[in-house]
Amino acid sequence: MAYTAESWPITAALLQFPGINANGLHINDADSSEWVKVFREVKEAGFAHADLTDSWVRPGDLSAARLEEFKLSAAEAGIGIPVISAIRSSVIDAAHWRENLAYSHRTLDAAAALGCEVVSVGLHQALTREQQRQLWFWTIQGHTDPVGDSQTWNDAVVRLRELGHHAAEVGILLSLEMYEDTYLGTGDSSVNLVQDIGLTNVGLNPDVGNLVRLHRPIEDWREVLAKTLPYSNYWHVKNYIRDEDVARDTYVAMPAPMDAGIINYRDAFRTAISAGFQGIICTEHYGGDGLSVTARNQEYLRTQVLPKQDGYALGTSQVAQGRLQPADAAPVS
């Protein structure tokens, strides 16, 4: 049965929660009560599920005993944890690919232990020192994957396929997050990459927000989604206000609630559902009270965007789709 506005699984991103606590301790090593506190805050904001963004807790680095504590912490707060987003651990990072690949494998095992359904990874690399000094890191050029480098492309395909096989073995979907200046940075390149990997459980996370925020000319978001949504199995959604003055070569973008930015998500989801998208959705936002904005984004999706009981006509997606119990059921832990 297709999801409706009421039943569609929507998670809260945990971008706004720091990975280091007030005492300078990594959250992985903190008392489990700190985990419960975050999960309760997410629950009180109106969410049934959270995306375990690993800028907060890194599940792939938790011991088996701590993973069990973590799982119990989510259950205590009444929050489902169906997804891990492992960010900035590119498997083609020239200096760190081996450790990133090993970490990604550990993350898949952790996801299986936690009962997750999806792990989202990408090819974006660590922020540069200059990016870290900016209000918005995307205003400064970061790492760029080498264009036309067949060896690096092949490395990406082989290593992501390796992760895809592992994910299939433990019953998990692997989703590849779109991000500027990587091999997942355009609609065509993203589709080519997932096609070259060639596994039914490996699809795209068409996070077009990562592209529209750039202070330079960009690919039209409608064209990106039309190309990528038939291959998508998970989706980070966020929005940005954007202004372009082409004559002066001036481009500006800043975060906005989903209903107020340049991406028309009402139209985007019509395209998605007609392509057969039935994946879990994650609401994100940078800056300010990010959790409240993501909660507003969830309300917008459920009341204005996602199909009511009669729904839209479903197409046929070309990758496996994530499935999760309705949001009013007992949360997955």
Describe the protein.
The strands form two sheets. This protein has an eight-stranded parallel β-sheet with strand order 6-5-4-3-2-1-10-7. It has helices at residues 32-44, 64-77, 97-114, 129-132, 150-169, 187-197, 209-212, 221-228, 265-274, 290-305; strands spanning 10-12, 49-53, 80-85, 118-121, 173-177, 202-205, 234-237, 239-245, 250-256, 280-283. It has 333 residues and is an alpha/beta fold. Helix 6 (187-197) links the parallel strand 5 and strand 6. Helices cover 35% and strands 15% of the residues. The protein has a single domain (10-305), classed as TIM Barrel (Alpha-Beta Barrel), CATH 3.20.20.150.
Keywords:
333 residues; TIM Barrel; eight-stranded parallel beta sheet; globular; disordered C terminus
Briefly, what is this?
With 333 residues, the chain is of the alpha/beta class.
